[in-house]
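Subject: sequence -> structure tokens, single chain

Hey, anyone have a minute? Need the predicted structure for the following. Not urgent.
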Amino acid sequence: MSQLVAYREKLNLTQEELSEKSGVSVRTIQRVESGIDPKGYTLKALAKALEVDEAQLLQKEVAVSTTTFNINNLINLSTLPVVFIPIVNVAVPLFIALLKQHFNAITKQLITLQILWAIVMLLTFVIGNLINFGNLGRDIIIGALLLLVLVNAFMIIRNSIELNKNNQLYFYVKFNII
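Reply:
Had a minute. Here:
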């Protein structure tokens, strides 16, 4: 992992946010984070946006810590056993993040996704019970809720796969609730 990732995560910035702040393309940021040393304008712009010295961005990290990756993946997968309970699926990863004192950009995104899913799940349940769909109403509500549970389980598993490969999320939103 390059120093750019560490400084970006320290400021809780996504690659897109750093791109907007620095004027450097997301693709260039991805290249730098993969290990290519920034030069010239790119180095100056990234250093200025992150408020660090240019030399600090070029320093090589001695050892890559897998602790952050493991905690992010634990927080993500902790939701899977309680995927069908809207409030608990937010409480479990939030509790782990608080317990481990681990709130980086990925953790915030994971919890934000679960908060949004819980809101959609609860709204589906409430609206489904308010609207009279006739004899099939209960079946439609149960089917919609089951579909939402399956979609959430897929998102959790897909994000876990992407965390294993690239230490990034596959599904994310452009804002954080927490």
